[in-house]
Amino acid sequence: MIPDENSNRPDEELVRLAADGNAAAFDEIYSRHRRFVYNLAVRMTNNQADAEDLTQESFVSVLRRVGSFRGEASFTTWLYRLVINQVKMHFRYRSARPEMQTSDGEIPERWPGVASRTDPAKQLIDRLAIEKAVRTLPPGYRAAFILHDIQGYKHEEAARLRGRTAGTSKSQLHKARASLRTVLSGRSPALPT
Hints:
Blueprint: H1 11-19, H2 23-45, H3 48-65, H4 75-96, H5 120-135, H6 139-150, H7 155-162, H8 166-185
Helix pairs in contact: 1-2, 2-3, 2-4, 3-4, 5-8, 6-7, 6-8, 7-8
């Protein structure tokens, strides 16, 4: 068997190649780090099936976001944070939509006493409104909001990435949230309920 040329490359070089569309580089990243991702997910969920799903979802996120890796920390640190965020979203989703089963283990078509799901069109309009509101923030506020609330960095990490202090990061995040609340509360409802 001929050794793959990517097997000797450092993670950072593989990430750069994967960001440029090199599928073999991404495959090598997956091969190197899938056990790490799975073990982290299984420790956090205590469920092998969920950990397998989260491993796949995490690598889909890696594929989508590999171009955002800047190399300011090691790749495994970046990957660790991405997996942690994926698991947190998994738990948030589960708590918002608990599964209900009948005595024979089947999931009923309509849950008694539970209203129907939110209209997808309304969700899309709300998401677009949020994205538009985020774009109106001053650059420092926007960066603090995205790094902390969207990408899941702690204040110290976000501050270090931007060359700021943790206090500045906290202040800018607070101001960003206040501004977003003001902008979003002033808009009319997306669709009649």
